[in-house]
Amino acid sequence: MGYPDTFEGFMVQSQDDWTNFKKQEFKPKKFQERDIDIEIDCCGVCGSDVHTISGGWGGAPMPLCVGHEVIGKAVKVGDGVTTVKVGDRVGVGAQIWSCLECKPCKTDNENYCPKKIDTYGAPYPEEMGGVIAQGGYASHIRAHEYFTFKIPDNIPSEEAAPMMCAGLTTYSPLVRAGVGPGKKVAIVGVGGLGMYAIMWANALGAEVYVLSHSPDKEQAAKELGAKEFISTVDKDWDKPWAFTFNFMLNTADATHKFDLAAYLGTLDVNGQMHHVGLPDEKLPPISAQMFAPNGCSMGGSHIGSRPEMFQMLKLASEKKLIPIIETVPISEDGCKKAVLGVSNNEVRYRYTLTDFDKAFPNR
Fold it and tell me: What is the pLDDT of residues 6-29, one digit of tens each?
């Protein structure tokens, strides 16, 4: 049928064959008055995509088109849309709808709405079409305007794409923790999330320290804004850093291997270790006694809010922050290369799928 009745995407048919992508049509949600249709130009490849299609996070509806770091051009806007017009360059992240009526939604915490709909793999209610939300490895995406964001002119699309999830996921907890001048912040991990965490913390004025088990990433960490690089493979690495950090943002995907007591011991009194990396494995065993020596705490978060997205984009635009990314032309083989590169930790540090016009010439 084709647009606007159907969209086309690179879809996985089974979690048992999760690197095998096939281009096929799918039916989008019902178009409503606050919806925006976006012709996609590029899409970041997130660790969430791999965790979902590989079954690491459990079952998922199939066939599935993943991708929630979308940049493209608005080609249709509903009658109730006031923030975007046809032709605008816009982005969509990991959430595509919320009720906008509950307490979290009314307090700029719509990312915690109990009725929220993720950008892919989530069911829409019957009044919206009753379909499964499909993501951005596709010709188009249909998004509610509240979860559609105009992109500053000076941020290239391939750089803006990973900001839609990885960027916001790291920016939100940093600003909610009051990170800024006078604060010492530890970023755990130098990957697709850690890259942005280092950039944001430095741009916000904090003193940034990187904790990593990969010594070969020291140069990149310092180029991104780290003052110090601490190798966690060294024996007793934590001892010199006791009571140092006001806030620790853990972006790593291997937390199940951590000696959590060592990490927590580097926090200042009442410091917090905050998790945004969501690995397949459970956290290591935790005891209440681990928090007593310095009154520390642990927490986590889910992406961020619309106001935080715009604050983040403004920061990146004004300070001309440049992430380290690799581009991959989208195709069945390109999608396979990208998800395997993420799974095998081969990417430095984020993939963006490009060349959508070649992949979808008839849209």
Answer: 999 999 999 999 999 999 999 999
Q: What angle do CA 278, 280, 283 make, to 5 degrees?
A: 70
CA 14 from centroid of its chain's CA atoms: 23
Structure tokens at 65: 């088109």
Q: Which two tokens stand for residue 46?
A: 């997130």
What are 265's two structure tokens?
A: 């011991």
- pLDDT recorded at residue 279: 86
If you compute the radius of gyration of the chain from its CA atoms, what whole number of angstroms results?
20
Comparing C-alpha atoms, which of 234, 266, 230 is closest to residue 248?
Answer: 266
Amino acid at 76: K
When pLDDT is cut at 50, 70 and 90, the band that residue 5 belongs to is very high
DSSP state of 363: -
> What pLDDT, on the 0 to 100 scale, is given for residue 301?
98
DSSP one-letter string for 330-355: -SHHHHHHHHHHHHTT-SSS-EEEE-
Q: Render pLDDT for 255-306 as a digit per residue (tens, 0 to 9).
A: 999 999 999 999 999 999 999 998 889 999 999 999 999 999 999 999 999 9
Find the mean pLDDT for residues 67-83.
98
pLDDT band at 97 (very low <50, low <70, confident <90, very high): very high
pLDDT at position 353:
98
∠ CA 307-79-160, rounded to 5°:
35
Residues 6+ apart with CB under 8 A from 120: 52, 64, 65, 66, 67, 68, 132, 133, 134, 135, 136
Residue 218's alpha-carbon distances to 207, 211, 299, in angstroms, are 16, 10, 27
Which DSSP helix (H) or strand (E) runs through 23?
Answer: strand 21-26
Which residues lie closer than 8 Å to 238 by C-beta, 6 or more apart?
232, 262, 263, 265, 266
Q: How far apart are the first and last CA of the chain?
A: 11
Mean pLDDT of the chain: 97
- Alpha-carbon span 356 to 363, nearest angstrom: 10
Alpha helices in the chain (DSSP H): 47-54, 103-106, 157-160, 166-176, 192-203, 218-224, 260-264, 306-318, 332-343, 356-359
Q: How many C-alpha atoms does 201 have within 13 Å on its Cβ side? A: 36
